[in-house]
Each structure stands twice: as structure tokens, then as C-alpha cells.
Amino acid sequence: MFLTLFPDTRYSNGRIGIMRGIFLGLASLVLAGAAAAEEPVVMREGITACDLHVAMSADLPAECQSYKGLTRSSAAARTLTRSVNLAVLFEHDSAALGEGAVELLDAVGDFLASDVNAGQTFEIVGHTNSLGTDGYNMGLSERRANAVTEYLVKQKHIAPERLHVLGLGESAPLPAYGDDDPRQRRVELKKL
Length: 192
Fold this sequence. Notes:
Elements: H1 14-38, E1 42-43, H2 49-56, H3 72-77, E2 83-86, H4 101-113, E3 122-126, H5 134-156, E4 163-167, E5 187-191
Parallel strand pairs: 1-2, 3-4
Antiparallel strand pairs: 2-5, 3-5
Helix pairs in contact: 2-4, 4-5
């Protein structure tokens, strides 16, 4: 993307070309920003509740206000997301929580339990890759979302009425990976 400020020789007045260039440049910036905002956020092992707050919360708890060099102005300027894909990876044809899931879900539980999120409801959305039939994958994705919800309720004491379960099967793949990629077997945390 570039912005041209050279006069357009097709017009007798060079200012029209400059204005056209500025308009097209700004339009491309807006479109690029919209595309970037739609890029899915994926959280992996090693995340903390503060990582989730920085991504999803307008108000940061005190312990996250200077997290990883965050300043008051950078905190105010950040773009928030309503949805985070969690790399709670599952084996093929399984809803059992995989390796690394506990650490990741403990961070999610701490995020959900914070005062900033008191009373906030979330959707736990299960996903599959494209191996298997649509109907089977729909049920499997719901079982995966239920496994995560059960962990959060039983181990992190999150009120079950704050968590809504949804299975989407293979219908919403991450665009960065192929439809049959194992990384499509994941769970998404969505603020309602």
C-alpha cells in the first residue's frame, strides 16, 4: 500500500489528483485496518490472565496495568477483540483435554474470575478439523466445548450460568491453516 501525492495529469488541476491519492490511501488504510481486526487471535501455552485482559478487556485490573511494558496511552489505544481462539488442542476424534491444556485453562479461569469480568457471560465454542462427517464433527466440537467448560466450572469455580456452550464443527476454520490441520481442533472463548 502506498499513498501517491503526485498530480494526476489527466486533470487540469493537480490538486484533484492529490486529493484522489489521499482519498485512496486513506481508504486502503481503513480496509487494511478492518482486515487486521478480523484476523483471529490465537492464544497458546504460556499465556496469563493478563494476556487475555489486554486482548479482551476495556478495563484492566491493577495487576495488568503495566503488564509487558503497557502504558496508560498504549492501553487506551489498543484494539480489543471479543473472541480468542485457545490452542487447547485435541487428539483426532477426542474431546479429552490435551497436553498443555491445564496451564492454558488455568489462565482462562483466572481471567474469568477477575473483578473486571464479574457477571460477564462468555461462550465456549468448540471446533474440529475437516476429518469426519459434518454431523459427527458438530457433536465432537460440542463435546470439546463441554470438556473445557467442565474444567472451568469444576477446577476454577466459574459459575456455569456464565458459560454458554456451542459446537461449530468444521464450519469456522482458522484461515491460516488447512481445513484438515490438527490446529483446527480447538476451543474459542467469546465475550457475549
